[in-house]
Design goal:
The chain is an alpha+beta fold. The protein folds into two domains: 108 residues, no CATH class; 60 residues, no CATH class. Helix content is 43%, strand content 16%.
């Protein structure tokens, strides 16, 4: 989310990610109730269920919305919005940014680009199923910054550029990057930019980390 809104990435975000430090169960419940009220104010019928085992999760269902908008013949079919929490266990000072978009003018807290890059690299190396967006976003962020090695040392035990480069190149050597590129093309402003994924190993070999 910060990549697109704050840092002008040319990829549409597939989901919304927020870093919340020391979020309590009570605060999470209040947050989900506020989401419910906001959707109801917009005229939606909303069903909500919170699950608090291990991580905090909220399941928000919008019944009939597909049927009412002629997108489904099934009246009872629902759209599901899922809100998950996952602890990062890494503290950092957020940057402050003036947001002046979408008829909104306000100050927001955003994740610094070096931390974002480290998070992206961690996701790239640790997803059960590789996603092209991680490769695209990593190339984008490497134009702006180097990764936060304190984060990477804590998460994957890597504290220097050479070790990181070797780790990434070893991970990518068996991936079908053309397939990953096709998966993300529909989310790119310019679909031809998917070549950044196809050429990712060559870029990592040359770029200074």
């Amino acid at each position: 989310t910060a990549l697109r809104i704050a840092y002008e990435n040319t990829r549409f975000s597939e989901d919304l990610d927020f870093d919340n430090f020391k979020l309590s169960e009570t605060e999470f419940i209040l947050l989900t109730k506020e989401i419910q009220r906001g959707l109801q104010r917009e005229g939606f019928n909303v069903e909500i269920r919170n699950v608090m085992k291990r991580a905090f999760r909220c399941y928000i269902k919008l019944p009939q919305i597909l049927f009412d908008n002629a997108m489904s013949d099934l009246k009872n079919e629902k759209i599901l919005i899922q809100v998950d929490t996952e602890p990062h266990n890494f503290s950092y000072a957020p940057d402050k940014l003036i947001l002046n978009k979408f008829d909104i003018f306000t100050q927001i807290a955003v994740t610094p680009p070096d931390v974002l890059l480290a998070q992206k690299i961690y996701a790239l190396l640790n997803r059960k199923r590789a996603k092209g967006r991680d490769f695209y976003d990593t190339v984008f962020l490497l134009q702006k910054t180097k990764p936060n090695y304190d984060y990477l040392k804590q998460k994957i035990g890597i504290a220097d550029a050479q070790s990181l480069k070797e780790k990434i190149l070893d991970y990518t050597k068996d991936l079908n990057l053309k397939v990953l590129a096709r998966d993300v093309e529909s989310f790119l402003f310019n679909p031809s930019d998917s070549k950044k994924i196809v050429l990712f190993p060559d870029y990592i070999s040359q770029v200074e980390l």
